[in-house]
Every structure is written in C-alpha cells, then in structure tokens.
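Lecture notes, part 5. Sequence design as translation. It can be helpful to think of inverse folding as translation between two languages: the language of shapes and the language of residues. The source text, in structure tokens, appears below.
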C-alpha cells in the first residue's frame, strides 16, 4: 500500500491492483510479480496538472515503492546539472538530453533484489563519442574523468572500477596523442572506446553491443564510422543533434532490452525497469518523451515503464494522446495506440484531494494540536483540495494554533518551508511554489482583473510601460501552459492561487496603496450600468458598502431572482484581508465588522437613505454582509451568521412570489454550504452561465 499519499489509491492500490502494479508488474514495496495490463507495449504515462497537485510526490512515492526491487531512475528536468554544461565542457559536446540519459543509466545501474547490475555498453559508447567532440583542447585529467564517469555509471567500488580506470586512462592517452599529433581526435577516442569494449567484455552480448552502431545511417556497416557520424551530428546542433539524441535514447532502450533478454535474466528480474521524469515540460523532457514515443511507433519495442510528470495538458505536443482522469485508470486504462507517436502516451490528470483527504492530512500534521472542527473543511474550501496548500496550512496551524483565529492569519504567519530555509509567511512560501517566479509581480497586480480589458487597465496603472496588451496576452497563455484553469470572468482562474496573489497585493506596501489603486482603477474601468456588479465588487473590496446595498435593494423587485442571487454572490465575493472602520478605511484591529452588521447590531445607528424602504434596506444590508463573511475563504464559518443568513433569505422569499422557490432553496443551501466548507451554490445553479454573463445585472 502507498504509505504517505492521500487520494492516490488509483495508482498504488494492491487489491484490486492500481495502475502502478499493472504497469510495472510488481506490487508496491514488495518483490512480488503482478500480471501486466499491457504485456507487449506499456503506455508512456504522463501525470498532468498545475503546480502543487502532488505530481512530484507521486514520482517520489513510486521511486520508494520500487527501488531495490526493480531498476528505478528518477530525474528532475529542473535539476541544476541539466541546466547547462559544466564550466569546462564545450556546449557543442553537451546537451540536457545526453546528460539526462547518463543520469538515468547511473540510477538504473543500482543493485536490485536477485539480479545483477545492468551495464550500458551501447549508451556508453555513444556518450563517449559525444564527449569526444569537446576534447580538442582538454587536458588528459578532464578526459579521464569524463570517460570514467560514463563507464562507471556512478558505481565506484564495484568489480568494474579497476577496469574502468584502465579504460579511461587508455582513452585519455589516445586522445592526447591524437590532439598533439596529426591524427583525427574524435576517431582516435572512438577507436580506443571500441577496442576497450572488445577487450574488456568477452561475452557475446557485449560483443554485439560494441558493433551496434554499424546500423547508424550512412555508417556502411562500420561501428566506428557510425559513432563518428553520431558525434558530428551532435556537434552540428539543431535537427542533426535531435537525430543523434534519438539514437542515444535508442541505445539506452536497447541496453535495457538486452539486460532482460535470455532465460536467466527473465528468471532473475521481476517487473519492468522504471524511469521517472519530473518537470517533463522543461528540457530535456519533451525531447526524451518524443524520442521514446517515436521509437515505439516505428516498431522498435522496449519494456521500460516510463512515468513522467508535467505541468499543463500538452495539447499541442501530444495531440493524439489518450487522456484520462485518475479515477478512470484505477482498474484499467482502456489505452490502445494507433499509428501516431503521440498515441503511445497516456495522459492522466491528477485531481484535487477530497474533503476527507484534507481532514486526514490536517489531523496527521496537527496530531498534538487541538484543531477547531471547522478548520479542515474551511482549509479544503480555500485550497480547492490542492495538496501543497493543505500541507502548508496544516503546518502553519500546528505551529500557531490556538493563537490565530482565521485562515488568513495562518497564511500570514511565519513558517519554515525546510530546515535549511529561513522563515517566511505561509502565503509567500505557497506562491514561491505555485506560480512562476519570473512573473510573480505581474500576476500579483493582474490577479484582481477579470478579463483582457481590465487586465490592460491595471497594467497601464501599476506595471511598467513595457508591459502592454501583448504582454497581458502572453501571461494569459502562460497560465494555460502552467495548467491553471481558464475561468470566464477571472484573469487568474484558480481561486486559491488568486486569493494568495491578492493577499500579496494587499500586503505589498504598509498603507495598502497598491491594493487601493488596483480596485479604484477597476471600479472606474467598469463605469457602465451593465458592468454594475463588477464596479460594486471592487468598491466592496475597498470597504465601500452602500452602493452595493442600494443596487441590490433597488433591483430586487424587478430583476430575475436567479440573476439577482448570482449578482449578490459575485459582489459579495470581494476579497477582505483587513478590517474596515465605518467609513471603509483600513482598521488596525482584529475586529471583523461584517458579523456585527450581518447580525443587525448596528441597525439602530445606521441611517436609511431618504425614500428607501427601511425594512428592505436593512435586510439587504444584513444579507450582503452575511454572504460577504460566509463566502470569505479565509474565515471560519460562524454558525450564528449562518442562522441569520437563513432567516434573511426566508424573509425575502415572502416578498418575491415569482422567485420564492429560488430564495427558499438558497436559504437552505447557502448556510449549509458555508458550514460544510463549500461555495454557496445550490441546485438552481446547475444550468447557470459563468459569472461573466452580464445579462440582467444592471
């Protein structure tokens, strides 16, 4: 069974078997075989989704579940050693994909139960040929070091280490001689490599590997010429390099296939070798995925289980891929490829965690801390089931309860993301991992926007002149590439990420100048009557409540009840990060006046506008503040305010004959949703358009 993850049983379950045992052929954490779902060709599995959904955690769990039982390699395409060549390595003889293949081979070579160490003669020969392309002015020590790493695959102290040193020394001497003499350097290095393979390995399997490059295009049946061509294509860059890299991938797969061939290896090795690739949206991920898929589409079979994780949905790169939600692959994948390479991929979207998962995570992290019962469902509502958000909120609660009274305070409280990192506010730790760092400032400002036009208005007011409409569209595209949902009516579609960004905007300066400027800009941008609810939403975010009360009061008798309720919800979804005084100014205390207004405690002192129905006016005012408070994702639900919300909606239902049923349903559904940690939406919203639909709002 999976030991640390919640909500991912479809991958790790044993009885009945989840995807991992069916794909790899082994039970997790056991050296026990399990039948393959796809015995002839496994799908290339890619886990998709936005940041924070636990893709990296799934790969780490897979590594821990199968390490030592079958060969396993985990690489992260964001690793430093894949970002660029070492200082002494010329760029023409290095690429992220070639480096990744070396790292994969190093990790697959680690010992496993009941089977010998895998060797990679084909891949090693190709990597030496590639490295030789950068040895023109290298010293013998650097050459020896590079060659020895390629041979040893990081297995220092093994039986092969003495031979590796002799081989590396021989190749280095040969190359140095070629560099100082008249002979070609690359061919000298490759000749020494092939001779060493022939001399050092006497088995037929390794002898076959030493001549494998005879089939390289235009090699004419000569392995040495094939490797020289490979090296030249790699140095040429562009499409030629991609061609060479594809052969290096083919070499890795051929070596792994050879390791499992024959009667004895099949008896000793259970399951498939497992290659895990994190952040596969970044180089060398796309190149590795494309090369493997193309090999398989051309009928070059292998039995390697690939599981990669990437942000976004890869719609452009993998157009013919089979796409599934995680629950859909719990018992079978229903995957069948066609002739296209991308059909060999199986994309699985990781879903958010459930409320029960959130409850269990908070309970585990806060084991020694008394947690208020409303906190887990409120944390789930705020995070939307984002595993990273739940973990960090729970960690903040474990450190700061009972001294804090809201999720907002948990987000602004300091936490230490790791033992070797300094303390910082929880919301900042989350943003560091949930949004691209290079676009944090722009997203902080534009999180308040609803569409392209309002985003451009904010950019013109608060961002540099160089950030214009084209930059706004590029940022919208980036959000889609990151896997964040596109939601009509919100520039940043993910509510949790948007809340964190707005909180950062509010706290960006001590007097909240940027916050006020942003909402004043948007209130002015939405000046037309049909944009009333947008303007009222941003005025409410500034603490200005009377226009919203007046609009809802005056439109209640004449507006379609469904539209009116939708408008109420949208206006009352205005963010509230800081208490306001009676004039809407920031208040330095912890008091939240919304509850007092919702409960009618200041009705007597509130002046009703001349000519207005006093009873209706005060009822709408109480209702607005109740919904504003109860839909606030940073506040734990107040049962007393929930009761008042129910009462006010009931009373309104008596005044609206045509909309009586909708108002009555809302009086039941909205308080129940607030107490359960859900947004206030009932059955009447099932056929509603998005919040961007402005019909009937004014």
């Amino acid at each position: 069974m999976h030991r640390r993850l919640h909500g991912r049983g479809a991958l790790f379950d044993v009885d009945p078997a989840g995807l991992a045992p069916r794909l790899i052929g082994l039970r997790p954490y056991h050296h026990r075989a399990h039948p393959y779902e796809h015995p002839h060709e496994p799908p290339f599995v890619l886990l998709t989704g936005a940041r924070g959904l636990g893709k990296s955690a799934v790969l780490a769990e897979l590594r821990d579940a199968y390490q030592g039982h079958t060969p396993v390699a985990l690489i992260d395409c964001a690793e430093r050693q894949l970002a660029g060549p070492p200082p002494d390595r010329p760029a023409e003889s290095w690429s992220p994909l070639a480096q990744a293949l070396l790292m994969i081979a190093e990790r697959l070579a680690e010992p496993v139960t009941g089977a010998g160490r895998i060797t990679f003669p084909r891949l090693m020969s190709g990597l030496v040929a590639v490295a030789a392309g950068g040895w023109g002015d290298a010293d013998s020590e650097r050459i020896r070091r590079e060659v020895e790493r390629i041979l040893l695959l990081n297995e220092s102290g093994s039986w092969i280490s003495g031979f590796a040193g002799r081989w590396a020394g021989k190749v280095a001497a040969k190359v140095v001689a070629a560099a100082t003499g008249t002979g070609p350097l690359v061919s000298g290095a490759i000749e020494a490599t092939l001779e060493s393979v022939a001399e050092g390995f006497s088995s037929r399997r390794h002898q076959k590997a030493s001549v494998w490059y005879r089939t390289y295009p235009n090699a004419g049946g000569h392995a040495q010429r094939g490797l020289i061509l490979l090296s030249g294509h790699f140095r040429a860059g562009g499409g030629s390099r991609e061609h060479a890299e594809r052969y290096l991938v083919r070499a890795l797969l051929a070596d792994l296939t050879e390791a499992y061939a024959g009667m004895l290896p099949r008896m000793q090795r259970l399951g498939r070798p497992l290659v895990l690739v994190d952040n596969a949206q970044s180089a060398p991920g796309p190149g590795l995925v494309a090369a493997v898929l193309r090999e398989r589409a051309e009928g070059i079979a292998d039995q390697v289980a690939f599981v990669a994780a990437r942000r976004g949905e890869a719609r452009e790169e993998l157009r013919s891929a089979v796409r599934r939600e995680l629950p859909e692959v719990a018992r079978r994948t229903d995957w069948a490829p066609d002739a296209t390479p991308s059909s060999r991929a199986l994309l699985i979207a990781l879903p958010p965690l459930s409320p029960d998962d959130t409850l269990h995570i908070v309970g585990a992290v806060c084991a020694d801390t008394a947690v208020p019962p409303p906190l887990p469902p409120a944390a789930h509502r705020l995070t939307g089931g984002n595993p990273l958000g739940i973990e960090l909120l729970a960690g903040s609660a474990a450190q700061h309860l009972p001294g804090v009274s809201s999720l907002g305070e948990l987000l602004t409280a300091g936490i230490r993301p790791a033992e070797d990192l300094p303390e910082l506010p929880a919301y900042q730790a989350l943003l560091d991992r949930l949004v691209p760092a290079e676009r944090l400032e722009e997203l902080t400002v534009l999180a308040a926007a609803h569409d392209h036009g309002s985003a451009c208005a904010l950019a013109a007011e608060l961002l540099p002149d160089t950030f214009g409409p084209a930059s706004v569209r590029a940022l919208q595209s980036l959000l889609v590439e990151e896997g964040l949902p596109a939601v009509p009516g919100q520039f940043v579609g993910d509510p949790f990420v948007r809340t964190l960004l707005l909180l950062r905007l509010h706290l960006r300066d001590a007097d909240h100048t940027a916050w006020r400027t942003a909402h004043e800009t948007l209130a002015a941008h939405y000046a037309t009557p049909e944009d009333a609810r947008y303007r009222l939403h941003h005025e409410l975010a500034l603490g200005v409540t009377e226009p919203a009360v007046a609009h809802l009061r005056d439109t209640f008798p004449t507006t379609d009840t469904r539209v009116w309720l939708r408008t109420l919800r949208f206006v009352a979804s205005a963010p509230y990060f800081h208490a306001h005084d009676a004039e809407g100014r920031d208040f330095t205390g912890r008091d939240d006046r919304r509850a007092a207004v919702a409960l009618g405690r200041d009705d007597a002192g509130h002046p009703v506008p001349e000519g207005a129905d006093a009873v209706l006016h005060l009822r709408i005012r109480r209702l607005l503040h109740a919904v504003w408070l109860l839909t606030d994702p940073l506040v734990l639900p107040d049962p007393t305010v929930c009761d008042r919300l129910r009462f006010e909606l009931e009373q309104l239902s008596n005044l609206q004959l045509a909309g009586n049923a909708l108002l009555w349903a809302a009086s039941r559904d909205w308080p129940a949703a607030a107490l359960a940690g859900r947004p206030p939406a009932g059955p009447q919203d099932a056929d509603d358009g998005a919040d961007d639909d402005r019909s009937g709002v004014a």
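The translated text above is only one of many valid answers, since several sequences can fold into similar shapes. Strands lie at 44-49, 72-76, 274-278, 305-311, 322-325, 345-349, 414-415, 424-425.
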